[in-house]
């Protein structure tokens, strides 16, 4: 249920009320292959990753869903194929909190000799303080570092695909407007694993800030290289998903979501818009919200912070 009145369309012709099917209406994606991370199936609380995969498949794309739980992933695939018998959907295992799992996924995907046009870094978690298998704070490891490594390992395939097909590649990082509420220093490089100073909201916000900084620095590097691959980030809107499902915030988010949040179809629309719409061709290093280019926090536009995060991330993945 969306309590606010239907919002006015922006320059793109779409708004916060637009759905994923509306923003991709009439688009033929049959020549495209896409990877979507963080596709979860949990009944009514399924997230925007499921809707993203469904709509990309509906428009003809070959969708590879990168999932932590293969049983749940297969259930999503079955549901998509049941609705759309022509859907081309595959499921592959990926745990973004584990750098070994990311490397395994990338090796297996690259060995398939498939093209890759679209990479949607959708997965996200919010949790109390925990360390990953690589001894990295879990939210940062999953939301940023796993996607950073995944992108690095798939980037050459994306560049080659763009060159051979002459179709622009698109990398999309799902962030959040919560990036504005990160720690004062933006990224806690020296205190990443500090349990005493840990705050669940700020930790999640830090990871979402990292998503934007990653996309911006990647966009800068891709432009420098002169390749047909773009990188953008986005705020999907307030969507009642199960990101905080294992925390004390779960009940609050679920209750509030029924009252004021976007539905999943609206929440996935900006992702689908950036992934498929011709209006976005050539656009890179931008932050989107409600299917239109928006303004991120000044910290997210800090080029030096973005470069520092890039170097910091490289060191972490090389030691993991």
From TrEMBL:
Chain positions covered by the region annotation Disordered: 1-20
- What organism does the record attribute this protein to? Papaver somniferum
What Pfam families does its record include?
Answer: adh_short (PF00106)
**Per its record, how is this protein called by name?**
Short-chain dehydrogenase TIC 32, chloroplastic
Q: Which InterPro entries match?
A: NAD(P)-bd_dom_sf, SDR_fam, TIC32
Biased-composition ranges for Low complexity? 9-20
Concerning its family, UniProt says: Belongs to the short-chain dehydrogenases/reductases (SDR) family.
